[in-house]
Design a protein that fits this description.
InterPro entries: Methyltransf_25 (IPR041698), SAM-dependent_MTases_sf (IPR029063). Helices cover 35% and strands 28% of the residues. It is an alpha/beta fold and 218 residues long. The chain has a single domain, classed as Vaccinia Virus protein VP39 (Rossmann fold). The longest helix has 22 residues.
C-alpha cells in the first residue's frame, strides 16, 4: 500500500470546501469542461477505444464526475472515486447513471491484473513526488496485460503552496509540478511503456499541462 501523505486530511477538507464553487465554475465558465477542449476529448477518446472491453476502469480523483460520465457514454465500464465526500455528492447528483465512491489514491486496495484502465486526470498533483511514484507502481500492478494508465497534470518545476483557489475559497494544499520527461521516467520505472505524450499550453484557467498514456505490456 502506498504511503499516505502527511497532509491528506487538509487536502480532503480543502476539496470539500471548493467543491460547490468548482461545480459552479464548471457549469458557468467552462472550467474543467472537457467538451470545450478538442485535444482533451481526443486523448480520452483514444483511451476509451484502448480500454473498452479489457476490464473495469477506475477514474481516481474523479471530482464531480465529468470525465467518468464522458467515458461511460462511450461504452467504457468505468467508475469514479474521489478523496472529497462533497465532490462525490456532486458527482452522484450530476451523473446518477454512474458509480462513485469516496477514497484516496493512496488507500485503494487494487487486486493484481484486475483493471483495464486507471486514471489520474489532473488529480495526482497534490501527491508528494515519492508518494506519486508509489501510487503509479500500485496502478501498474493492477492493470491487465494491455491495460492503460492515463495521467494529466501541471507542467513546471518545483511546487507551489496554495492558500486559495476556485474563486478565492481558502485551501491548504501543495501543487507539485512536473517536467514531462521527469514524470515519464517515474512511470517507466514501474514497467509500463509510454505510448503517448501530449503537451498543452497555458489557457485561461491553468498553466501548461501534459497528458501521458502508458501501457502494461506483459
Amino acid at each position: 500500500m502506498p504511503t499516505s501523505p502527511a497532509d491528506l486530511d487538509a487536502v480532503r477538507d480543502s476539496y470539500d470546501r471548493v467543491a460547490d464553487n468548482y461545480v459552479e465554475m464548471l457549469k458557468n465558465d467552462g472550467m474543467g469542461d472537457i467538451r470545450r477542449h478538442p485535444w482533451l476529448l481526443a486523448a480520452l477518446d483514444v483511451f476509451a477505444d484502448a480500454v473498452r472491453g479489457l476490464g473495469p476502469v477506475l477514474d481516481v480523483g474523479c471530482g464531480p464526475g465529468t470525465v467518468t460520465a464522458y467515458l461511460a457514454e462511450r461504452g467504457v465500464d468505468v467508475s469514479g472515486v474521489d478523496l472529497s465526500p462533497r465532490m462525490i455528492e456532486h458527482a452522484r447528483q450530476l451523473h446518477p447513471e454512474c458509480r462513485f465512491s469516496v477514497g484516496s489514491s493512496t488507500e485503494l486496495e487494487l487486486a493484481e491484473a484486475s483493471y483495464g484502465g486507471l486514471m489520474g486526470w489532473w488529480s495526482m498533483f497534490n501527491l508528494p513526488r515519492e508518494v506519486l511514484a508509489e501510487v503509479v507502481a500500485n496502478y501498474a500492478k493492477a492493470l491487465v496485460p494491455g491495460g492503460q494508465f492515463i495521467i494529466g497534470t501541471h507542467v513546471g518545476d518545483g511546487e507551489v503552496q496554495r492558500t486559495e483557489c476556485y474563486g478565492g475559497v481558502p485551501v491548504n494544499w501543495t501543487t507539485y509540478r512536473w517536467q514531462p520527461d521527469q514524470l515519464a521516467a517515474v512511470i517507466e520505472q514501474t514497467g509500463l511503456s509510454i505510448t503517448a505524450d501530449l503537451r498543452l499550453p497555458r489557457d485561461e484557467f491553468s498553466g501548461p499541462g501534459v497528458i501521458l498514456v502508458a501501457k502494461r505490456t506483459g
